UniProtKB/TrEMBL annotation:
Residues 483-674 form the Peptidase S9 prolyl oligopeptidase catalytic domain. SUPFAM superfamilies: alpha/beta-Hydrolases, DPP6 N-terminal domain-like. One of its GO terms (biological process) is proteolysis. InterPro entries: AB_hydrolase_fold, Peptidase_S9_cat, Peptidase_S9B_N, Serine_Prot_S9B/DPPIV. It comes from Sinosporangium siamense. GO terms for molecular function: serine-type peptidase activity. This is Dipeptidyl peptidase IV. It comes from the Bacteria. Residues 132-385 form the Dipeptidylpeptidase IV N-terminal domain.
């Protein structure tokens, strides 16, 4: 068993940069060329590319020092570097000089709500909260906001082990935290001149919001120094509304508004940046009104045409060429794997749809500033990433990189096996990946581990860039480390059932009114049965499930609602009571108030526990706060149920200093209760980085 632990340790996601090389390319354009940095077994390598010449050359370090990010400095700087906006107390400063003076606690300038900024996480990681600021193209004016959360109920967290010696008394931390049905924060916007301090208040009534303020997720932008746009979602994401604002006067008008019976998305998920673009008197607008996520062109508020259509969805806008009246975008749903993205071109009149990436693979594409060139990194579960340079017709003009995974293979990694099965309805296709141990023996019998997330806003299966953080389930699976768990001797299943994103609206809406996604969990049950039917090495008598956050919720729900299927669960930081979690979650996926949010609680079902359950949580988690776990614990105790629990002092939504201990405890639990073996004694898990 100690050898299995060592093999699993070698495939921990922290070792990615030691095992995978030449897989990630981020181009930095400078005129008619660009450079990028890749990691190699010998160390970092810098490459410059001249697209017109079809030339690629290894160069010395260009010495381009990136400015420290705002999360480190606490400042947002103008494009020309002349002005730096910060926050002192509850007021804004420009180059250190106050430009507002009436900010008060709970009603300050420039800062997001407490729930959005997650102050405990920020403090633990040594981060500062920069102001919510977007500068106009000219660099003098900027738009910011004022958030009023004085009326929002508070959440108290107790830190039992404060840092430093001689601190026997716990510390108490209090933050505003809106739950479903609470009165949410409100936000107003204002425009300031960084040079003169002149202020213009935007003439829009205070807007309610939960969690993400529009300025924090690219829903406020400038088209020129005098024109500002604001994209707003009403409570529960029932409507999307686009405002045009005159920055000189603050006058605002609604240009477009659309409402949906379930969720009115303006991008494939509520956490994706919006797929709305404004240019001149035209607006490119994302909607699922025909059952799929497509783009529509409006002029002066009137519909001109549907630009994209079909049983597939737009995933991202790569480049909008106003002069040529062409749009380049990523779409999913054309390959047998619906989560694979491809690059397409279409005219803004909806004609001339052309696929530019013929490979059946997932393509992650960025464009040059002028839209003439595209850097495309594509991969499949069986084929490591390849990065190429394409022209605007999709022709590959130069191969840039081909991932080197020799060390990954030497470490025991085995490519995951894609599969397609039917959902619990017997009709809908659902897709997944099966990870097997590196020393897999088809004549042996393997316990199954369902590595679950099951959230309405985030898939488990797709490769994506989560607000700057790349997530790739095909290699080391940064989201949950499925190959690592497989090395313990488990067959690990990753699946996205109904209710999860990046499919049709009907597929996503199957989970509406069901924030714990019981319908999606039923698809997991159906999938396991079908997989085992033609894979005799999968043992349905030994099935486990594990997940973090929304995956923790799904894990507990699986043991409580499907005790005959799932026998062992490791539930980490779950939101087991919708009524006590983020208003964003319950009101978006359960519906805005009035609603009975208690109906989705797992607490009343605690008496149904039959399997082995390990509950994990952080004492200082300001996302899924520990009360959510403790209320489930209280119900289990009252029902006299046996379970296991680990609460980590001082930890927030991630376990930080305790991560290796928490992970090792998960391994031990699964090995003991799924494999029926004793874990190795004295093993210390070492993480890199």
């Amino acid at each position: 068993m100690i050898d299995r632990y060592r093999r699993a340790e070698r495939l921990h996601m922290s070792r990615h940069d030691q095992l995978v090389f030449r897989a990630l390319v981020t181009p930095h354009w400078e005129g008619d060329s660009f450079w990028y940095k890749v990691n190699t077994p010998e160390g970092p390598e810098f490459v410059r590319v001249w697209p017109e010449k079809r030339e690629r050359q290894v160069i010395a370090d260009p010495g381009a020092e990136e400015a420290p990010p705002p999360m480190i400095t606490g400042l947002v700087t103008s494009p020309d570097g002349r002005y730096a906006v910060g926050v002192e107390g509850e007021n804004l400063t420009v180059n250190g000089t106050p430009v507002t003076a009436d900010g008060v606690a709970g009603w300050g300038y420039g800062l997001p709500s407490d729930q959005s900024r997650m102050p405990v996480v920020a403090r633990q990681q040594g981060l500062r909260t920069p102001p919510l600021v977007v500068f106009a193209p000219g660099g003098r004016r900027f738009v910011t906001c004022r958030v009023d959360q004085r009326h929002v109920p508070t959440l108290t967290l107790t830190q039992s082990c404060p840092p430093g010696a001689g601190q026997p008394r716990p510390l108490v931390h209090t933050m505003h935290y809106e739950m479903p049905g609470d009165e949410p924060p409100t936000i107003t916007h204002l425009i300031l001149d960084a040079e003169t301090g002149e202020r213009v208040d935007v003439d829009i009534e205070p807007l309610t919001f939960t969690h993400d303020a529009p300025l924090g997720v690219e829903r406020v932008w400038w088209s020129d120094d005098d024109t500002l746009w604001l994209l707003y979602s009403t409570r529960g994401y029932k409507s999307a509304r686009l405002y045009r604002i005159d920055a000189r006067t603050g006058a605002a008008c609604v240009v477009l508004e659309e409402t949906a019976e379930t969720i009115m998305h303006y991008s494939p998920t509520v956490i994706d940046f919006p797929l709305v673009r404004t240019f001149g008197d035209e607006v490119l607008w994302f909607s699922e009104r025909d059952g799929w996520g497509h783009l529509y062109l409006y002029r002066d508020g009137e519909l001109v045409c549907q630009v994209t259509r079909g049983e597939w969805l737009v995933r991202a806008i790569v480049h909008l060429d106003e002069e040529r009246r062409e749009l380049y975008f990523l779409a999913g749903g054309h390959d047998p794997n619906p989560y694979h993205r491809g690059l397409f071109r279409v005219g803004l009149d909806g004609t001339g749809l052309t696929r530019l990436t013929p490979e059946q693979a997932d393509h992650d594409v960025t464009a040059s500033p002028d839209g003439r060139w595209f850097v495309d990194t594509y991969a499949t579960p069986a084929e490591p990433p390849v990065t190429v340079l394409r022209d605007r017709d999709g022709t590959v003009v130069l191969e840039l990189e081909r991932a080197d995974i020799r060390r990954l293979l030497e470490a025991g990694w085995r490519a995951p096996e894609p599969f397609t099965v039917k959902a619990a309805d017997g009709v809908t296709d659902v897709h997944g990946l099966l990870y097997l141990p590196g020393d897999f023996d088809p004549s042996a019998s393997y316990p199954i581990l369902d590595s679950v997330y099951n959230g309405g806003q985030l898939p488990r299966l797709a490769r994506l860039n989560l607000r700057g953080y790349p997530v790739d389930p095909y290699l080391l699976d940064q989201a949950a480390g499925a190959p690592m768990f497989a090395q313990l001797g488990l067959a690990v299943v990753v699946l996205d059932g109904r209710g999860t994103p990046y499919r049709s609206k009907a597929f996503h809406d199957a989970g509406y009114g069901d924030p714990t996604l019981r319908v999606g969990l039923a698809d997991h049950v159906a999938a396991l049965t079908q997989l085992a039917a033609d894979r005799p090495y999968l043992d349905l008598g030994r099935v486990g499930i594990a997940g973090h956050s929304g995956g923790g919720t799904a894990t507990a729900a699986a043991l409580l609602h499907h005790p005959g299927v799932f026998h062992v669960g490791v539930a980490s930081a779950g939101n087991y009571e919708t009524a006590g979690y983020y208003a964003l979650w319950g009101e978006t996926y359960g519906g805005p108030p009035p609603r009975d949010y208690d109906q989705w609680s797992l607490v009343p079902h605690a008496a149904g526990l039959k399997g082995k359950l390990l509950l994990l949580c952080g004492e200082m988690d300001d996302n899924t706060h520990p009360t959510l776990t403790l209320r489930l614990v209280d119900a289990l105790i009252r029902a006299d149920k046996d379970f296991d629990m680990l609460m980590v002092p001082g930890a927030a939504h991630g376990y930080l200093h305790a991560e290796s201990h928490v992970l090792r405890r998960q391994w031990d639990y699964l090995v003991r209760h799924l494999l029926g073996e004793e874990p190795p004694t004295g093993f210390t898990l070492t993480l890199e980085g």
